[in-house]
Design brief:
Layout (H helix, E strand, L loop, with lengths): L11 H8 L8 H28 L1 H4 L6 H17 L1 H14 L2 H19 L5 H4 L2 H31 L5 H9 L1 H16 L4 H4 L1 H5 L1 H12 L6 H8 L7 H8 L1 H31 L5 H29 L1 H23 L4 H29 L6 H17 L1 H12 L2 H20 L6 H16 L6 H4 L6
Helix pairs in contact: 2-4, 2-6, 2-8, 2-9, 2-10, 2-13, 2-16, 4-8, 4-20, 4-21, 5-6, 5-8, 5-20, 6-8, 6-13, 8-9, 8-20, 9-17, 9-19, 10-17, 16-17, 16-18, 16-19, 16-20, 16-21, 16-22, 17-18, 17-19, 18-19, 18-22, 21-22
Length: 467
């Protein structure tokens, strides 16, 4: 007896399934891997700057006779890169919605790689004076533009190739490229410590050249997004995606902006500022802090994927709410644990801050942000919301340092919890895009296709593409 199928709330889903199979495209795994590797490389480049800013740049590119002022200037330079990321997100988003996701992926990686290698070759303050800081700012701006364009293209490609029921998992895999990049960046700076002050910060940036070659090779082999190709074929590409998304979806941009701040600004306090804080207070050596960050990043690779996959089971919003609640509670205990000066407890603090607080949010964002926007403005909308928060998070280490100078560690601790509260409020007012109703609807469509003699899974498993 054939089971009676409930009517679909959105009959268009059946039409979509014809060109974007429920089980995803034949390239889904290759795209996810390529996007993840690209994200890893760009994170290595971008986060490497943050590590160097916290540990070296205050005396390398600025006057060495006032290290604390140098730290402020160093973090200000770090923030400039974040400040221009929205512009990179806008440019990359518009291009991604007009000419395709793939060209943006390749172009952003090339630009990022060139800028990063240049940092490793810059002259120091002792060599050229104030020009050292000026050159650093110029290259940092280029980095920020490239990184701003990167995320939207990588996530959108993965999301639009992924199985309907596993979009959280697949975008989580792409997001996991960021902790891999963090791990590699910290490892590079850790092994370069014995090289001395002159080369310890240069070598990690120069090594980026090798990673760029590998990344470009992989990204050139992936196919364009099926949803973009469908929009192009139907002539439904947006003529002005920025104008449309600002006019029609500004509320979602604002919500995603606040959701993102909790994750990225929280990281800026708990990792970037914390590295500088531990160094200034002489609570632990550089090897200890870099090792702690590496352990947290290694765990974060699996944590990010896990949290992304978990959203496929219970929805996007519940996981985000859990992560932000933990952030709110963790602010003051985080500093109390670090202040003990115990290497083991410092490692524990980094693991909780990064692998739990940050990764529980990052693992959700890929799928949730994409689902908030229409396909023809999705890259622009998601990228704009994602990168706008970078303006706040980029200057957070500077803000945290100023608070530390005036109030001690309690200021940055409260700031961290405040970012968690902002994320919690945003999560509560943002619609669930993969709740029980959506999951049941896709399940009903699967049953309907099977009843018509179409096996959804067979659409991709018969492919010889290696997926």
């Amino acid at each position: 007896m054939t089971e009676q199928q409930p009517p679909l709330r959105d009959p268009h889903l059946a039409e979509v399934a014809q060109w974007h199979p429920i089980e995803g495209t034949p390239m889904k795994k290759r795209v996810a891997a390529g996007s993840s590797i690209g994200a890893m490389i760009e994170t290595y480049d971008f986060i490497g700057f943050g590590i160097a800013a916290a540990l070296y740049f205050n005396t390398v590119f600025f006057p060495a006779n006032d290290p604390l002022s140098g730290t402020l200037l160093s973090f200000a330079t770090l923030g400039i890169g974040f400040a221009v990321r929205p512009l990179g997100g806008i440019i990359g988003g518009i291009l991604g919605d007009k000419i395709g996701r793939k060209p943006v992926l390749v172009g952003s990686l090339l630009l990022m790689g060139a800028a990063t290698v240049l940092i490793g070759a810059l002259p120091t303050y002792q060599q050229v004076g104030v020009w050292a800081g000026i050159l650093l700012v110029i290259v940092r701006v280029i980095q920020g533009l490239a990184f701003g364009a990167e995320w939207g293209g990588a996530i959108l490609m993965t999301f639009e190739h992924a199985p309907w029921r596993k979009k959280g998992l697949y975008t989580g895999v792409t997001q996991a490229g960021f902790p891999v990049g963090l791990l590699l960046a910290n490892f590079a700076f850790l092994i370069s410590v014995p090289l001395g002050e002159q080369w310890a910060w240069r070598v990690p940036f120069l090594l980026s050249a090798v990673l760029i070659i590998v990344g470009i090779f992989i990204r050139l082999k992936v196919e364009e997004s099926p949803e973009f190709e469908e929009l192009k074929e139907e002539g439904d590409l947006s003529k002005n995606p920025l104008k449309e998304v600002l006019r029609d979806d500004w509320k979602n941009i604002l919500r995603a902006f606040c959701l993102r701040i909790a994750e990225t600004a929280g990281y800026a306090v708990s990792v970037t500022f914390m590295l500088s804080y531990i160094n200034e207070e002489k609570l632990a050596g550089r090897s200890t802090t870099l090792t702690a960050t590496m352990i947290a990043a290694a765990i974060g690779i699996f944590a990010t994927t896990f949290f992304g996959a978990w959203t496929d089971k219970i929805g996007r919003r519940p996981v985000y709410i859990l992560g932000t609640v933990i952030m709110i509670a963790w602010g003051i205990p985080m500093f109390l644990v670090v202040n003990t000066g115990s290497a083991v407890l410092i490692i524990v603090a980094f693991v909780i801050s990064y692998s739990v607080c940050q990764n529980s949010l990052a693992g959700v964002q890929g799928a949730w942000f994409c689902e908030l926007f229409n396909a023809n403005t999705r890259t622009t909308g998601a990228s704009l919301a994602y990168q706008m928060s970078a303006v706040v998070s980029g200057f957070t280490p500077l803000i945290a340092t100023a608070l530390y100078i005036s109030t001690g560690w309690i200021g940055p601790a409260v700031l961290f919890s405040f970012y968690g509260l902002l994320g919690l409020v945003a999560a509560l007012v943002t619609r669930e895009t993969w709740g029980r109703a959506e999951r049941d609807e896709v399940a009903a469509l699967e049953r309907a296709l099977k009843a018509d003699g179409v096996e959804p899974a067979r659409r991709t498993t018969d492919s010889t593409s290696g997926s």
